[in-house]
Description:
Largest interface: A-B, 16 and 16 residues
Oligomer: heterodimer
Shape of chain B: globular
CATH superfamily of the largest domain in chain B: NAD(P)-binding Rossmann-like Domain
Structural class of chain A: mainly alpha
Distance between the termini of chain B: 44 Å
CATH topology of the largest domain in chain B: Rossmann fold
Number of strands of chain B: 22
Amino acid sequence: MNHRLIAKSLGALLTIEAVCALPSLIISMTYNDGCAPAFTLFIISLTAAGLALNLIKPKSIEIYARDGFALVGFGWIVSAIFGALPFIISGVIPSVTDALFESVSGFTTTGASILAEVESLPKSIVFWRSFTSWMGGVGVLALMMAILPSVKANSIHIMQAEAPGPYVDKFTPRIAWVARILYVIYIGITLIEVILLLMGGMPLYDAVVHAMSTTSTGGFSSRNLSVGAYNSPYIEIVITIFMLLCGVNLSLYQMIPRGKINAILKDSETRFFIAVFICASLFVTIELAARNGESAPDAARHAAFQVSTLITSTGFSSVDFNKWPEFSKMVLIMVMFMGGCTGSTAGGIKCMRILLIFKILRNELAKILHPNSVHVTRLNGMPVEDSVLTGILSFFFLYMAVIAVSMLIISLDGFRLETTFTATLSAVSNMGPGLDMVGPMGNYSGFSDLSKIVLTVCMLLGRLEIFPILLLCAPSFWKQANK
Amino acid sequence: MKIIIVGDGKVGYSLAETLAVDGNEVTIIDRNMDTLKKTVENLDVMCICGTGVSASILIKSGVKEADLLIAVTNSDEMNMVCCLTAKKLGARHIIARIRDMQYADELNQLTTDLGLDMVINPERAVAREIARILEFPPALKIETFARGRVDMVEIEVTGAMEISDMPLKQISKKYAHSILIGAVLRSGNAIIPNGDFIIRKGDIIYIVGRLARLNDFCRKIGIFIPKVKSAMLIGGGRVAYYLGKYLEDIGIDYSIIEREHNRCTDLAAELPSAIIIHGDGSDDSLLKSENISEMSAFVSVTGHDEDNLISALLAKQFGVSKVIAKISRLTYSGIMQKLGIDNIVNPKQITANAIAQYVRGLENAMGNPVKTLYQIVEGQAEALEFIVTSNSRLINIPLKRMVLKPGVLIAVITRGNNIIIPHGNDKVQTGDSVIVITTGHRFTDLNGILEVVNK
């Protein structure tokens, strides 16, 4: 493994993180909320650490798959650990475990919180929380590649390890430009949402915080009641649309300037995603209208908002869906499992995997009917390689295994099954709220430190799709050669 | 530049590597997903799976905005069709690999008809490289430019040479008509000489011409070049065929050892002056019976790296002074040098370098009306390539009556298959490609090289 290069890259990452804390510092000074010293200290220490690491001279600049995975694993852990510092220094979250939970929850775009009350907190801290999730949306290392000019040819390994989904769509020859274009799209969507939210009468600060939480599908709000606090159908609809937009593969949007809007609509994964969204919303609408007696437009609005927030793993809430009927809750849990599209900022297993698993199943059935038949699994008309398919199946198994093991440990706390299960699922799929105790009106502060650590790890595993973190735990990964 | 490479084989990969490192935006098209996967992991390029002949795949890879398309699949015909399609779709320059000997003779016709900007024939390039190694000692510096058509050798003039203190007119009269002194470096300044220019001791002269003639000239003016009289070639493939042609031109006697009988018969028909031997090139008794120890050079160019290596080692054992082996896998070359083999030629590297050089020429020429532009003479002079159009004022005027601007020289005229090193009586015709050597001038078109005459 190329330790020196990884250390040097981590240095660059920390420097970028320091720069990213500047907006929070400015906000802290504008509102005079007393956190300015904390952020100043944070920026100075991060810059110092970053520049010190940057002095390392790597022996070689080659990056192989294992280095890419290691850099992504370390990069995220280090970013999240440092990202917890403002919470601790400012004294907002004194416990280290809690601060780390909050920071990881931000970077992984989970949006789960141990805080019951956010409105009384310093504005800059709340802003930092949303900003970490915005950085984590497309990825911190992608941000590094987009900014730094010295991107090496095989940096594709880094992208591969960080980006959600079985493979990276390299739509332009230069990897640095792939990262740059993604960020341009991402920033563009965020800005448009800020403007639309402002038009809905949201204050500028709230609009920025909510836009960042929406596009990153993080779900941190600056209000205790989340989006429900504004009680505005317009705001809910805007956020619904933008959550869905960010649940779609972002790299598809680069086709719009080329006038190929059709290509986006023809993409099988996007179609599947939209179809699931529509069906799920419809089911929930019907039940809310029939059982809860809500008027059809209200039911539809609430259903669409909650389904989109859970399918994209954002985790906002406009109503307390914990009080919804059981069938609707089940639908929400199902879409939580699936998540958004590959290459989006959403979490979950990802539509493409689910879609391909269905295709594999169909082929297996056909094999029983015609034992000698030959099948090729296709996606968007292109054949999918067997290695990708096996990768998906093993990922699916690992995903379930992570949930099972985590639930086992968390059950030591003695909470109800609904709490334990949805808390774990919510962490792994980078959602935020679950049901029961961790429902939209609840939070994670009731868990023991052990459970919080387990959930923190779950969030990282979910965001990086298990392998980069799992690899760091494998003993053979650390040995030099042939062991 | 935006470059599309069709075919992700050995040459395609090397090319992509060189071009991507130079900072070009490279897209590779290939039918094999596995090779593409390896490529995309190691190089900063975009890969597209599909056939390069298909218009939709080409459009998908951005052919409409492409500056250059290079077709290097293993089928000549596919490369041609691919280039034709690409040109129709809007690619600005196209290069095809055409390696079949059947096309070799009509290559220039084919090039014009298909509108190709360059044709690469890796085997011929390798043969040429080997011929160059055989003819010139490594101490002499040779530059090749304009798609490998022009060679230029660099010589430092010493007092012992007869040419010192001689005007150029006299030199060409006395020695040879088929070479040309293209540039002179005197105390660090590049000068483009005319006929009255007098060579002085200490000048570094750059001579343009065909390899064999350059060799003759060097010898005549008193530079010692060990003469290779005889050579033995192992492997009767395409490289051997092209090399044979070169060796005939230079005047080296050679024999070819080939394992397959049918191929031997073909070679015997194609290369009448060669000795063709049917047998195994790594069999030492055969080599001995063919007098290997009397040979002044040994070249192994079979399709297998391992065979080439073994044969070359055997030859070294028998005391052949110049041993050359063709090695396709780059990773071997380090070991080879340690084993004492004098020269390694690597086809994919030679090809990739030739194209990369052409691409740099294209890039330099961007925004200029010239076709390509090469930096020569340590960057102090430029070789510009123009195509002669029917409205050019140069047509049908003997060069000696042409009044060129000072510091400008017509170095090479390419007409169809022929490369002409021009002299006073030669004329330029429509459709010729002309290489002009100059220092510092920027011309808007070929007419610009003429001195403005007030009538």
